[in-house]
From TrEMBL:
Family that this chain belongs to: Belongs to the helicase family. RecQ subfamily.
The protein's name: DNA helicase RecQ
Keyword Ligase recorded: no
NCBIfam families: recQ (TIGR01389), recQ_fam (TIGR00614)
Reaction(s) this enzyme catalyzes, per UniProt: Couples ATP hydrolysis with the unwinding of duplex DNA by translocating in the 3'-5' direction
Helicase ATP-binding domain: residues covered: 39-210
MF (Gene Ontology): 3'-5' DNA helicase activity; ATP binding; DNA binding; four-way junction helicase activity; hydrolase activity; metal ion binding
GO CC annotations on file: bacterial nucleoid; cytoplasm; replisome
InterPro entries: DEAD/DEAH_box_helicase_dom (IPR011545), DNA_helicase_ATP-dep_RecQ (IPR004589), DNA_helicase_ATP-dep_RecQ_bac (IPR006293), Helicase_ATP-bd (IPR014001), Helicase_C-like (IPR001650), HRDC-like_sf (IPR010997), HRDC_dom (IPR002121), HRDC_dom_sf (IPR044876)
Isomerase as UniProt keyword: yes
EC number: 5.6.2.4
Keywords recorded for this protein, A-Z: ATP-binding, DNA damage, DNA recombination, DNA repair, DNA-binding, Helicase, Hydrolase, Isomerase, Metal-binding, Nucleotide-binding, Zinc
A biological-process GO annotation: DNA repair
Annotated source species: Odoribacter laneus YIT 12061
C-alpha cells in the first residue's frame, strides 16, 4: 500500500493517490521524467513552465490534473488538426464522451451549442481552443461563466519571434486570460532555447513560474544528413526498404509536395500530399488516411507543419533543410514518439540555404538578422563532423557528455578530416583582395578559373589568384567558404545580402594562421549498411503481434478512430509478452488502464485466449508470481526506505547487506508484483538520455536477460546499472 506522503489533496479535501489515478485513467504504473513533479505543481495552483521533447509525455502534464481538478481546463493549441486527435485520444480513455471537446472554426453552430452544454453541465474536463477562437468576444463571455481549473498553453514557442513557428495571436493570450478570469497557467513546449524560454515567460507574465526542463535527447532517434544528389530516387529506395512503415517527408514548397507525392504513388508507395494551399476537405481526408493507416507516407510543407499526434511514425525525411534547428528538432521529433524506431534523414544542399536567404530579402533588417542567425545554426549542424546529438542538445543549452552516441551518421561513420589551413587562407585572402564586395559564387568562380560575364566585367580574370584553386572542384571551394562562415571568419552583409565581409576573427586568422581541419564528404552508398535503426517493435511473439495489429485496425475502422487511439504499439507488444486473457489482466498491460480495457478489450482477450490455447502457451507471469512472491524478508524495510528516498548503499549497510545482495532483494520484491520507485537514485547515476536508451532496450528486447543487455551496450553500462533499470522497467510495465 502506498504511503500517505505520495498522496495529494484535491479541492474537496479528499486524498488522491496520483499513481492510482494514472493507472485508472491512462493505464501507466509510473510517471515519466518530471511528469509527477509537474502535475503536483499544477494541482497546487502554481504557474508552471514545461520544456519537454516531443514524445516525452507533455500532454499528460495537463490531462491528468484536468481530470482530477474541479472545473474545466482550457488548452490553447495552434493546430486544429491536432485538437481532434487529442480529443479522440482522451475520449478513448473515458466512458464519458463529453470529457473532452474542442472549440474552433471547424464546428457547426449546433456542434458549438452541444460543446457549451456539456461544459455547463460539468461533463467536460478539457476544452481545446485555438488562440483565434479564444479571442472571440462570444467565447470570452461564455468562458467567464464557467469554473476554469487552469489554462494550458501548448506549443508555447509560438509566442516568441525567436521561435521557429511565431504566431501573433499567441502574444494576445495573457490579456485574454486576464479578461476571462485569472487562473494558473501551464505553458508547454518541445523546443525552446534559453532566449525563447525567457520571451515566453515574460509575455505570459509568468516569470515566477516553476520551470521543469527535461532532457532534449531522444535516444531512439537516428540522425543523418545526406548530400542532395538525386534525393527522389534515394527516398524511394529508402521507403521500399521500410515498406508498410509510417513516415513524413517535409518539402520547402507546395509544388514539390505535390510532385513528390505523385512520384511516390507512381512507384507503388501509398503516399498523400498535405499543405496549406489544398482545399480543407482534401487536406483533412489525406490526414485521416495517414492516421487510419490507409496511406503510409504523408508529404508536407515545412512552413505549414504537421499537427499529427501519431506515435508510430517510423521515419521523418527532410527533402529540404528547415529554416532553424528548432524547426528541425520539432519536425524530426514526430518520429518514434512511442519510444520505438525513429529514423531522421535530411537532404542538404547549400543551394537550399541560398533559396532561404533570398526569401528573407525585403524583410525588415531586424527580422533578417534573426533569420540569418537561425539559418547559420542549421548550416553549422548540417556541415558538422561532430556527433549530431551533441550539436542539437548544445543548441538547447544541454550538455551531452558521450563522445559517440552510436545513433547518428557522424558517430557511425565519421567523416575523414584533413588539414585545411592553406585553403582557408586562400579564401580569406581573396575576399580581402577584391575589397569585400562580392558573394561566395563569384569568389569560387575566381578560384576555379571560370570567367563568366561578371568576372570579365570586373577584370577579375586578370587577378593572380584567378584559377589558383583549379585543381579542386566548385563543390570543394563552396565547402571551404561555408566552413569559414561557420567558424565566423567571414559573414554575409545584411544590407547587401550575400556580400562576404571578413570578421575580426578572420583578420586574426590571416595574421596568425593555425591548424584548421576540413572534412571530406562521405560515400553514403558504402556506409548505408552501418545505419543502426534503433527502436522499433520487437514483440516476443511476432505472429500474435500481427494478429493483434489486424484486429486493432478492424476495431479502429468500426469506431472511425486512428488505430493508435485503440492501443499503441508498446501495449500490443506487452500483450504479446504477457498474454492477458481477462479484462482485469488487460487493464494491467502498459498503456491500457481500466477504461480502455472495458471499452476495447473484449475482442483482444478473446483472440489472445484462443491463441494461448491453440499454441499451448505457458504464460510467464503466472510462473513468476508463484515462484518469487514475498521472497524478500527485508521487503517492508526496503519499501519504506525507498519511499523515503534513502540511498541504496545506506539501506544495504543498515541491514548488513552488500549492494549486490540488496539488488537481489529488490528484484525479489519487484518480480513478485510490487512497485518500487527508485527514480531518485537512478537519476544520480544515469542521466535521462542514458535511462531512456536502456529503457527503450528493455521495451524492445525479447528477453530481459542482463547478460544480453550488457553485450548489446558493449559494456557502456555496468551490470548493476542495467539491473536497476530493469527494476524500474518491471515496476512501470509489469506491476
Amino acid at each position: 500500500m502506498r504511503k500517505v506522503c505520495e498522496k495529494i489533496t484535491n479541492t474537496m479535501g479528499l486524498e488522491i493517490d496520483l499513481h492510482e489515478k494514472l493507472k485508472e485513467y491512462f493505464g501507466f504504473d509510473n510517471f515519466k521524467g518530471n511528469q509527477e513533479a509537474i502535475i503536483r505543481n499544477v494541482l497546487a495552483g502554481k504557474n508552471t513552465f514545461v520544456l519537454m521533447p516531443t514524445g516525452g509525455g507533455k500532454s499528460l502534464c495537463y490531462q491528468l490534473p484536468a481530470l482530477i481538478l474541479d472545473g474545466t481546463a482550457i488548452v490553447i493549441s495552434p493546430l486544429i488538426a491536432l485538437m481532434k486527435n487529442q480529443v479522440d485520444a482522451m475520449r478513448s480513455f473515458s466512458a464519458a464522451e463529453g470529457v473532452a471537446h474542442f472549440l474552433n472554426s471547424s464546428l457547426t453552430k449546433n456542434e458549438i451549442l452541444k460543446v457549451k452544454e456539456d461544459i455547463l453541465e460539468g461533463k467536460t474536463k478539457l476544452l481545446y481552443v485555438a488562440p483565434e477562437s479564444l479571442t472571440k468576444d462570444s467565447n470570452v463571455e461564455f468562458l467567464k461563466k464557467i469554473k476554469i481549473s487552469f489554462f494550458a498553453v501548448d506549443e508555447a514557442h509560438c509566442i516568441s519571434e525567436w521561435g521557429h513557428d511565431f504566431r501573433t495571436e499567441y502574444r494576445k493570450i495573457r490579456p485574454i486570460v486576464e479578461q476571462i478570469g485569472k487562473a494558473p497557467i501551464i505553458a508547454l513546449t518541445a523546443t525552446a532555447t534559453p532566449k525563447v524560454q525567457h520571451d515566453i515567460q515574460k509575455n505570459l507574465d509568468m516569470l515566477d513560474a516553476e520551470v521543469f526542463k527535461s532532457s532534449f535527447n531522444r535516444p531512439n532517434l537516428y540522425y543523418e544528413v545526406r548530400p542532395k544528389n538525386d534525393p527522389t530516387k534515394d527516398i524511394i529506395k529508402f521507403i521500399k526498404k521500410h515498406e508498410g512503415k509510417s513516415g513524413i517527408i517535409y518539402c520547402l514548397s507546395r509544388k514539390k509536395v505535390e510532385e513528390l507525392a505523385e512520384v511516390l504513388c507512381i512507384n507503388g508507395i501509398k503516399a498523400a500530399p498535405y499543405h496549406a494551399g489544398m482545399d480543407a476537405t482534401t487536406r483533412s481526408a489525406n490526414q485521416d488516411k495517414f492516421l487510419m493507416e490507409e496511406v503510409d507516407v504523408i508529404v508536407a510543407t515545412i512552413a505549414f507543419g504537421m499537427g499529427i499526434d501519431k506515435p508510430d511514425v517510423r521515419f521523418v525525411i527532410h527533402y529540404d533543410i528547415p529554416k532553424s534547428l528548432e524547426g528541425y528538432y520539432q519536425e524530426t521529433g514526430r518520429a518514434g514518439r512511442d519510444g520505438g524506431e525513429g529514423i531522421c534523414i535530411t537532404y542538404y544542399s547549400y543551394k537550399d540555404i541560398q533559396k532561404l536567404e533570398k526569401f528573407m530579402q525585403g524583410k525588415p533588417i531586424a527580422e533578417q538578422e534573426i533569420g540569418k542567425q537561425l539559418l547559420m545554426e542549421t548550416v553549422s549542424y548540417a556541415e558538422t563532423s561532430l556527433c549530431r546529438r551533441k550539436v542539437l542538445l548544445h543548441y538547447f543549452g544541454e550538455d551531452f557528455d558521450e563522445d559517440n552516441c552510436g545513433c547518428c551518421d557522424n558517430c557511425l561513420y565519421p567523416k575523414k578530416e584533413f588539414e585545411g589551413k592553406e585553403y582557408i587562407l586562400d579564401a580569406l585572402t581573396l575576399v580581402s583582395e577584391i575589397k569585400e564586395k562580392f558573394k561566395i559564387e563569384h569568389l569560387v568562380n575566381i578560384l576555379i578559373g571560370e570567367a563568366d560575364s561578371a568576372i570579365k566585367a570586373y577584370k577579375h580574370d586578370k587577378l593572380e589568384m584567378f584559377g589558383s584553386g583549379a585543381e579542386k572542384s566548385r563543390q570543394f571551394w563552396t565547402m571551404v567558404f561555408r566552413r569559414a562562415l561557420i567558424s565566423r571568419f567571414i559573414e554575409k552583409d545584411i544590407e547587401q545580402y550575400g556580400v562576404i565581409k571578413i570578421t575580426k576573427e578572420g583578420l586574426d586568422f590571416l595574421e596568425h594562421p593555425k591548424e584548421f581541419m576540413l572534412m571530406e564528404d562521405r560515400n553514403f552508398e558504402e556506409n548505408e549498411e552501418k545505419i543502426q535503426e534503433k527502436g522499433g517493435v520487437s514483440a516476443l511473439d511476432n505472429t500474435l503481434f500481427a494478429i493483434l495489429k489486424d484486429l486493432r485496425k478492424k476495431i479502429a475502422k468500426t469506431n472511425n478512430l486512428p488505430p493508435y487511439v485503440i492501443f499503441q504499439d508498446p501495449s500490443l507488444e506487452d500483450m504479446c509478452i504477457n498474454y492477458p486473457i481477462t479484462i482485469e489482466e488487460l487493464a494491467n498491460i502498459q498503456g491500457v488502464g481500466t477504461g480502455k480495457a472495458q471499452k476495447y478489450g473484449k475482442e483482444f482477450v478473446e483472440v489472445i485466449k484462443q491463441y494461448v490455447e491453440d499454441n499451448e502457451i505457458e504464460r510467464a507471469q503466472d510462473m513468476v508470481v508463484k515462484t518469487v512472491a514475498n521472497k524478500s524478508k527485508f521487503k517492508v524495510y526496503i519499501i519504506q526506505n525507498i519511499d523515503r528516498q534513502i540511498d541504496l548503499e545506506d539501506i544495504a549497510s543498515a541491514q548488513g547487506l552488500s549492494y549486490e545482495e540488496l539488488i537481489k532483494e529488490m528484484e525479489a520484491i519487484v518480480f513478485s508484483g510490487t512497485k518500487l520507485n527508485i527514480d531518485y537514485y537512478i537519476n544520480k547515476i544515469l542521466d535521462e538520455e542514458q535511462q531512456k536508451e536502456i529503457f527503450d532496450y528493455f521495451m524492445e528486447a525479447q528477453t530481459d536477460n542482463i547478460a544480453e543487455a550488457f553485450d548489446e551496450f558493449e559494456g557502456d553500462y555496468s551490470e548493476e546499472d542495467l539491473r536497476l533499470m530493469r527494476l524500474k522497467f518491471h515496476s512501470k510495465h509489469g506491476n
